[in-house]
Write a structure and sequence with these properties.
DUF1186 domain-containing protein; 23 helices; DUF1186; about 50% helix; globular; alpha+beta; about 500 residues; Leucine-rich Repeat Variant; 2 domains
Length: about 500
């Protein structure tokens, strides 16, 4: 039940401007550290720890790194990451540990020292971290003196202690340790193995094998299955034919263009500028803002698409969407829809993680009285799946803000679902990821009226189940009437509070 939309960057036809791998390597360390956890709480006795580290994205979603750490000998045995996981899905992930071996929140410094300390200890025996540590390890700070040192005891009784499980996958490490440490290490072998230790203490270490092969392994397999399901649903091929965008900028109020395009206002518009724009007649201000948006699209889309763009030193499109959400004039609708016809790379370049936070409120504000235009957009083939998914968000906003229009919007969703039944298999104006996002919206609005259509859509086997769950879970959630987890997603924020929040994350590029 993934209620808060998370961007799926796996592309079937085009690679995004910043792949998950590149994101981890280039962006993860720029985000503020979030909560960290370890399982089980008695990891120092068991010798095996699952360490989870998070960072906070501006959208409210998380970057998560998971590290399976053998503190007795092998260091980081396995690692995984998710570059954009919703808070709800993250809590579901943590439940595997809360309900199993137990889970304890720890500080980042503790997590850092456990992971790097175990790696350093393993390397003393010639053992390198798992290859999966790259790129998951980029969620960690660099291991420098800036991180306060915490002394942990690694190994057992000061020595490397190797546990070889019955599948004997750890056997190569025995030879590595033998080469680097001679006889100065201890080990436990499966019964009958030629290297079997003579001690009778094998049972003492059975929890180590149990944790590795059952609970933690199950969690990593769950991440793998999640990725497999996501990979099964490539995005619809992008085929949009661009119009001729204006090459010169014409506005009635020149100060609007000057302020939106000013590099000095990259992170935030001054309050007096906001007040001055909002004091204008709404349609007049919205028309000028729309002209700035179309001009900015024309100046940047080609360079973004062919990866030749140089630095674009303003946030005109970001500011424009924020202002249009406040003005609520239909004069901004065409420009908002044109943004939504661009590529995923375009949205990443101009809006980054702020895409869902800014787009669907602007579309709602400008298009709530022109549902025909939104439906026409939804039926247009060859557009980006993720940007298309902002339209159902805007439709759901109508129900939350104008509940008397529920029946009207339910019928819009009914037509959308009926169209997807035939169009999903051929990926025409929809794909599996988009369908999953639609299911998330239907859960938020408790769309009991649409359960037959939901079942028919899932029956195509073309809905990406990593977005909102499978058919059974979606219908169960709707029948329970849980509604939206994050109601503020469907509200237009106070513009001044919004900018105060954004300033914490937006910095002008060098």
């Amino acid at each position: 039940m993934a209620k808060k939309k998370s961007k799926n960057k796996s592309k079937g036809q085009k690679q995004p401007a910043l792949s998950p791998y590149r994101f981890m390597r280039e962006k993860a360390r720029t985000l503020p550290v979030g909560k960290c956890y370890i399982a089980p709480p008695d990891w120092q006795e068991s010798g095996m720890a699952h360490v989870i580290v998070t960072r906070m994205r501006p959208s409210g979603n998380l970057v998560m790194g998971s590290f399976l750490v053998d503190t007795f000998c092998l260091g980081v045995k396995d690692a995984g990451y998710h570059e954009n996981i919703t808070p709800y899905d993250f809590e579901q992930y943590l439940d595997n540990y809360k309900n199993g071996m137990g889970l304890e929140e720890i500080s980042y410094n503790e997590a850092h020292n456990i992971i790097y300390g175990a790696m350093a200890f393993a390397e003393e025996g010639g053992i390198k971290p798992s290859k999966e540590f790259d790129p998951a390890g980029y969620i960690l700070e660099e291991d420098t003196d800036d991180i306060p040192l915490i002394e942990y005891d690694f190994g057992k009784n000061g020595k490397h202690f190797l546990v070889v499980n019955p599948d004997r996958k750890e056997m190569p490490y025995y030879h590595t340790l033998k080469k680097n440490l001679g006889d100065d290490f201890e080990y436990v072998m499966p019964f009958g193995e030629e290297y079997e230790d003579d001690s009778d203490d094998d049972d003492e270490y059975s929890p180590l094998s149990k944790i590795d092969s059952e609970t933690i392994k199950k969690a990593f397999e769950g991440m793998s299955k999640w990725q497999e399901e996501s990979d099964r649903h490539p995005d619809e091929k992008y085929t949009y034919q661009y119009p001729d965008y204006p090459q010169t900028l014409s506005v009635k109020n020149q100060f609007i263009a000057d302020e939106l395009l000013s590099p000095d206002n990259y992170s935030c518009l001054p309050r007096e500028v906001i007040d001055r724009i909002l004091a204008l007649p709404k349609d007049e201000a919205a028309q000028d803002i729309s002209n700035v948006m179309l001009y900015s699209i024309g100046k940047t889309y080609k360079g973004i698409n062919d990866d030749t763009i140089e630095s674009w030193n303003n946030s005109a499109i970001m500011h424009s969407l924020i202002l249009l959400a406040q003005l609520q004039s239909d004069k901004g609708l065409d420009a908002v829809l044109e943004i939504m016809r661009q590529t995923d790379e375009f949205a990443d370049y101009h809006l980054g993680d702020l895409t869902p936070e800014l787009l669907h409120p602007a579309l709602y504000a400008c298009g709530k009285d022109n549902i025909t235009a939104i439906e026409a957009y939804l039926s247009q083939p060859g557009l980006d799946s993720y940007l298309r998914s902002q339209a159902p968000d805007a439709l759901a906003m109508i129900i939350f803000n104008q509940p008397e229009r529920r029946g009207e919007i339910i019928e819009v969703f009914r037509r959308l679902l009926n169209n997807m039944v035939s169009n999903l298999p051929v990926q025409r104006a929809c794909d599996g990821t988009f369908a999953g996002f639609v299911m998330s919206n239907l859960m938020d609005i408790d769309a009991k009226e649409l359960i037959p259509e939901i079942k028919a859509t899932f029956a195509t086997d073309c809905v990406n189940k990593t977005i909102a769950g499978d058919c059974k879970n979606v219908i169960k959630d709707i029948e329970l009437g849980r509604g939206a987890i994050h109601n503020d997603k469907y509200q237009i924020p106070d513009i001044y509070e919004q900018y105060e929040s954004l300033k914490k994350f937006i910095t002008k590029p060098e």
